[in-house]
Write a structure and sequence with these properties.
Oligomer: single chain
Strand content: under 5%
Number of helices: 8
Number of strands: 4
Shape: globular
Number of domains: 2
Radius of gyration: 22 Å
Strand order of the largest sheet: 1-3
Amino acid sequence: MADTDTQRFGDGDSVEIANAMNDYLIKNEIVKYGSSAYKTLTNDMKQINEYQKNDENENATQKANELISIMEPIILKDDNDRLIKYTDIGLDKLSSANDISENMYYKNILEMTEQAKALTENDEFEKSSIILASVIMEMKQYFDIFMTMPQTYTVVRRNNSRTTDSFWNISSYDFIYADTQKWQILYEKNKGKIRDENNPRLISPGLVFNIPSIMGEQREGLYKSSETYIPMTVYYYYDNALVIEEEVIIESYTTEDIVEDDSEGINQVEEYSNEDVNAENYQDDTSNEAEDDESGFYNTTQGQQEEVVDEDNTGGIEIYKIEDNN
């Protein structure tokens, strides 16, 4: 199993890891509810649980290992797609900077990106993602393309029930944890701020939540939709970003290697609005009303304070508006 998966899904036995991967794929909608893949994963997990129930532990482990070998490439590809998206965002911003083509850091980034995308073409997703994580970090270090991840986030109500804020939705944002299953971390940190700390389903717009670091990632400031932030996925791969194997070598340059001339604008990058990037899935969008959600994760009322029953205890949270009685 990949090192990045061990970081994310633990180093327990095969059955525990298979369960964690299955939950990740389904609850983050990487595998769509009701699809043939969803049905296959669900049936396989039922079979594993049945083996355990009958004390057929060897069969359970074997089946779990088979399932892990199927799920792991799906997860690695999803990570890689996400990192490619952010790399392309960074390159697009850099391309319009003055005399950027002569900048050694920029040249290095282009070479690394080309190398990573070649690996993606060969389905070597983990190796590609390790390089792309380094690319994104270099874009931040040398060109300030990406902001440090935010430390606080203001809860927003949206008319679309699938995108309105909840602990569940907030934890899924790339600049938070990129994983819906981490919602309980946010809840535990911020439950003292909500009206009923024993009811994570109800939160109020305007609340400012603190975002704990979970992998040593640096966080600072309040989230702004106009900024482009390092995606959390970077931190699953960046620790491995120096050398993957002998055939994959990432060169790095020190400040002594480059003579920068700010008068010529070599290292000047314009500030950009990111309204179409980070917040593309999170902005108020009344043009696309919510589809019915069979999972029951996303329940919202329009300014009412009625409670939503969360039968599967997933953290799908209703937002309500607290009326001002003054």
